[in-house]
Every structure is written in C-alpha cells, then in structure tokens.
Amino acid sequence: MVQENLKEALRKFFGFDQFKGKQEDIINNVLSGKNTFVIMPTGGGKSLCYQLPALLSGGTAIVVSPLIALMKNQVDAIRQISDNESIAHFLNSSLSKAEINGVKSDISDGRTKLLYVAPESLTKKEYIDFLTQVDISFFAIDEAHCISEWGHDFRPEYRRLREIFEKISNVPIIALTATATPKVQFDIQKNLNMLDATVFKSSFNRDNLYYEIRPKREVEKEIIKYIKNKGDKSGIVYCLSRKKVEELAQLLNINGINALPYHAGLDAGTRAKHQDMFLMEEVNVIVATIAFGMGIDKPDVRFVIHHDIPKSVESYYQETGRAGRDGGEGECVVFYSYKDIEKLEKFLQGKPVAEQEIGKQLLNEMVSYSETSVCRRKYILHYFGEEFDETDCNNMCDNCRHPREKTEGKEAVVMVLKAIEALQEMQKAKHICAFIAGNVIAEIKSYRHDQHELFGSGKDRDENFWNAVIRQCLVSGLITKDIESYGVLKISQKGLDFIQHPSSFQLIKEHDFSGTDDDSGIVTNAKGGAFDEALYEQLIQLRKQISKQRNIPPFVIFQEPSLRDMCLQYPITLDELTNIQGVGTGKASRYGRPFTELIKQYVEENEIDRPQDMVVKSLVNKSGLKVQLIQNIDRKLPLEDIGKAQSKSLDDVIEEIEAIVSSGTRVNINYYIDDILDAENQEEIYDYFREAETDDLITAYHEFDGDYTEEELRLMRIKFMSEMAN
Questions:
Q1: 392/430 same-domain check
Q2: Model pTM?
Q3: I need a surface site. Which of 89, 471, 473, 497 has the fewest CB within 10 A?
Q4: Range of the domain at 719
Q5: Bridge partners of 60?
Q6: Kind plus residue range of the DSSP H or E element containing 137
Q7: Measured between alpha carbons, how far is 557 from 436 in angstroms, rounded to an integer?
C-alpha cells in the first residue's frame, strides 16, 4: 500500500498523524502477506500493528488473546472508531448461544474485520468448522510468549495453535509479545513454524522508568508512606496472593488512600467495575495479583510497586511496563526478601521436574537482578539480549543514582573463569560458588570435585561474594548461561581472551538483603528500624517502678516486644499507644499514661523527629475473627474444635488467644484448663508467674523440671495475664 494511503488510514481510523517506531514497516509486512514477528515493549503500540492491517484487508483477522477482559477492552476500543458495531467481535465462554450466532452471522456477511478468540475456543470443532468456511485475512497472536515453556506465562493450549491454524486456513501469521528473550523468541517461531518470519524487535529500554529494589522491612508501612507522598497519582501494587491483595487494599483505605482490590477470585462483574473505576480515575490505586494489567491501556500510571518479588524478569518487565506509558514519570519499586524466594520455590514443588527447573532458573534470574549492584537497566536489557551502556541510564535506577563501592576484581574474575573451565563448563552458578569457596555440598561430593586442586581456591570469601562475581561476569559478557541445560555456565570468547590477558575489572559491592522481615505487618520489632536504647532503659525502669507499686510482675504491665516497639514509634498519646504491638485499648487506659508522658518528655528534650506513622489498626476481618474466637470461648467450645472450624491448629488458636490477652482483653478459658490440670497444679503455676521476673516459657519449664508441658504453661500464663493484667 502506498505510504500516503497508509498514513491517511491511520488518521481516519485512529486519529494519529504519525506512526510510532517500527509500526509502519510492520503493517506493510503484514499487508504484503508475510509472516511477521513483533517484539515491542509494553506501551509501544503493538495492537495497532494488527488492527490497522485488519481494517484494510478483505475478510476477517483472527486475533488470539489470553484474557476475556483484554478482548472486551480491545473490541470496545475498535468499535469506537467505526459506526459499524459489527466491525469487531469476540468469541469466548462469556457469550450466550444467541450471541454466538449473532457473531457468526456478522462474520459470514463480511461485516466483521477483527475476531478476538481465546485459544481454548479455537480448539472447539464447531468453531473450526465455521471458520474454514469464511474468508480469513491473517492470524494474529497477542501475548505470544504464552507459547513458550520458557516464557513467564506459559499456556499449554497456545502450543496447539499452529495445527489449528492449518486446519482453518493457510494465511500469514503475526505474533506479538512485549517480553521475549532470544531463547523464547526462537521457541515461539519454531512452534508456529514461522522461522521465515520477518522479525521486528524494538529496544526494550524504557528510559522514563526508574527502577529500585528495597529490602522488605516494615513493608506495609513503607508502601503507605510511599503512596501518601505521591498525592493523587495513579499506581498499581502487585501482591503474590489474593489474601494479601484484600488485606493491603483494606489497609490502604483505612489510611486514607483510595484503593481497590483486583484478583481472579473476584467475580467478573466486580473485576470489570474495579478496573473501570481505576481507568476513569475514580480510584487512585489498584492492589492486584498478576491477573491485572494485560492490555490495561492507562497512560498515566505513575508507580508500580511489587509487595512480593515477581516470578521472573519477564513478569517484572511486563508489570513495570504499565508505568509511564505516556512517556512521563514512572517509578518501579520492588520490596525484596529471601523469604519470598523460598515461598515461590515451594510453589514449584509437585510440578514436573522440567517445569521446576525452568521455574527455578527464571526465579534465580530475578534474584540476581534484585541483588546486583550493576545498572539495573543494563541488567534487564542484557537479559533480553540487548547491549546497553550504563552511562545512558541517566541515574534512572537506584544503583546508578547511589553507586556502590568498587574494588579491583581481576584475580577473582580469573579464578571464576578457571573454575568453570576446570569443571568442563558443565555446572551451574551454585556449584561453581560452592567449589571456589570450598564448601562440600552434596553435588560437590558426588562429582568428587572436593578432590580437585582448585577446590577452595577462594575460600577466604563466601559464596555470596562469588555469586556476585559470576553475575557481574555474565553482564560483562565474559560468561554465558546455557538455557537449554537449565543455566549451566559457559565461557565466551571474550572470557577466554580474559584468561589469556587479564585486565582491570571493577567489582561492585553487592547489596545486603539479610534481616528483611517478610510480612511482619505494620508493627515490627527493632529489626531494621532505628532502635532507641536510651529510651528503652528508661521504659524498663518505669515498668519496674509501677510493678512494685501495684505488686504485679513487670511483664503483666507491658511485655518487652511492646516496649521495644515504643522505642521505634514514640507514641505520645493513649490513642497512638494502641498502635503498639500487644497494646489494646484496655491496657493503654490502665497502664499507658505514665509511659506516654515519659516518651513525650523524652521526644521534646531530645528533639526527636517521630516517624510519620500511619494510624493503622487491625484489619476488619482480623477483628471479626477475634470477636468470633471470644464468642466461641464464651460458649465454652473446646479449643481444638474452634481451631478445626477455622482450619487452624491448637497451637495457632493458643497464639491468637495470647495476642488478644496481651493487648488488654480479658478471656476466660478456665473451662478448658480445668479439664487438663487439677486445682493444685493450677495454683502452683499461677503462684510461679506471680513471683516471676519474666514470663518466658523456657525459664518456667526448667523451673518445674519439665513437670508441665509447654502447652499447659502457655494456657496458665494466659489465665494469669487475663486476670492480673486485664
């Protein structure tokens, strides 16, 4: 088609004067009947690459799309540009029989230019039979990475697309994705039998996005603080589980942030409503699982936060790609913790071995990205097979904005390269690190690598250090990772040259992510916070003084975790005191005033800037469960039965009762204790706690020489605390 005519069509249908990037070349390629493969970042304008040629071609273009919500959005958008409602349709499980017949009729009459289908629908014989009788212009596969087992969102039904296409019609294919490593790209082309396709690959660099990884400490408090600083800007917060999505959305609302949840567990109507409210700016923040986002065309998302680490660099790239699609500000913040990695690894258990290996490798790449100190943009682009000079990052990642210390690493690099060579380029990073550090892990023993002369050649440094060296060698191109064999390290030609002629290599000190506190909630202990030892001593003395006056053990007043939390949050009113770990309204009003007065005076005298704490109370569903638990105890139900009803162990139930009692609520479990301990034993334990300096169970256990079980002591401590403290 003449270029002028193409520009005219662009203006007529979409109202744009210019094509973006490689769109024009891609469209010409499709219109000339060639197979086309498009790799273009999120926000690059992929949809237009098949929508415009479909509008200009005879017949109907079949667009395979993975999500019903995505299809609906696309169809609605196309219908806006035409006065013909029938110009675009979708076929999926959400339609009634009558609606399906209406769609078929429009296609047969030649009124429909774009038909969106789910891959599952295409496998149905009735659809295949129908489509073989109509004029098809071409097939488009959106989110084509779903075809590859190495893609981050693999769908088995996508693997069957080629055989289905061949049954329907021999027309060209255009496959499109926003994330494909060279390995995934080859896998897609091979599976679709389109190795002859013209490949259009745009740069993966989104220069307006700022990338940052933060240690996961007091994560929910940090997220609230971050979003409040953003004012009314739009953002997405991704969580791993539906439960966390619900909790966090509720928590944000309690703290004055207009947020809604979105996950696959919500019914379709609620999901659509929440999505529309976000698009229409009736709500600022969506808290979501990865079910949210595919095809969300909101240009002004200003931040994307990951409460939990994503499963792969592809997922991460695609999810962060929803920020700043208009070229404006877009901040991408991940909260990272080792515990998240362990959780994701557990999810892989029980899957086929090959799938586990792929999953672990994708996860390891995400760990490397998170922990690396090299330019994050360089790391991402290297992952997608693109070279990038970090000086072009313009401080748009935390590692470039706050560069870390560098040391000469020439000898360490040579040591790594020689170890890979000595082990015949047949081992993964974990094995190489253990080998150099001299750690006899099971694999090292089974290969007898602990007998090798180079074993332990770098034992003065730990495995974390050697892992960092390997990561930096990978990004520098000295070594490569063989994906086919699940991440075995190979030496590149550049690496072989380095062994022969070593030159200066600046190693960047890695981040330390130890001490993160996964899911600690709003209140935490001194982990990661600026703990005030001087105030702590004063609070301990005050507690001792009050305990003497009232003739009760100090721990009955406030337990140590509560005092420690006061030294982080500096509560100066009784209301603020109820936000402290283990302090309820009852306990605050009974014992709190002298403590808040002391803290207030201390804050003023030392000119302390108190953290801008959020007034965060327990979530509603938690307090609902608490009420339910107390009601069940009032009904004198056995604790085991209470646990079973909520799918909890006896240990969990006791722990919840301890939390309720320590925060100042009286709970009477005498009916349960009377069944397991006689009056004399109860009295003996009760008297012990009355005189004890500490409520520590191990101390109590030894005091009684193991005569009472830990469970019996815990129950009696609950009885004692409930009666004495509350």
A1: no
A2: 0.62
A3: 497
A4: 620-725
A5: 136
A6: strand 136-141
A7: 53
